[in-house]
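Um, can you check?
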Amino acid sequence: MIAKSYIESKGRKVKTLKNNVPGSEWVKSFLKRHPILTGARFAANIKRSRAAINKEVLTEYIDNLKEVTKDVPPENIWNYDEFNLTDDPGKKKMIIKRGSNPERIMNSTKTSISVMFCRSAAIDLNEMVEEYESIKLE
């Protein structure tokens, strides 16, 4: 629709395009002429608050975490991590710059299931992986 908007903003009518909307062959040709772009990929739906996180925010958080926990023994540090499994409210294909991640900012999703893990900083990560591999999830 961007191409259609551009064509119409110039006041042109392209006879080879139906209603000034390029077809799939035009898109393929456009991508060949612009190798910095990648083919259509599905965009990840993320909230505006997640999209606002940048490198500076993460660096500040990690620096603060190091300072706060410098005198705390590892057996007293526990990390809880949660992730959501959500259904997809509708994927959209996008053409993006090669090497970047497609994201579509949304304020809502349909349903989700939360999964939470907890581990101590004193536990060897290899032990944890071995324990995980021995558990059969059904």
Q: What stands out?
A: The mean pLDDT is 76. Residues 40 and 95 are 5 Å apart (CA to CA).
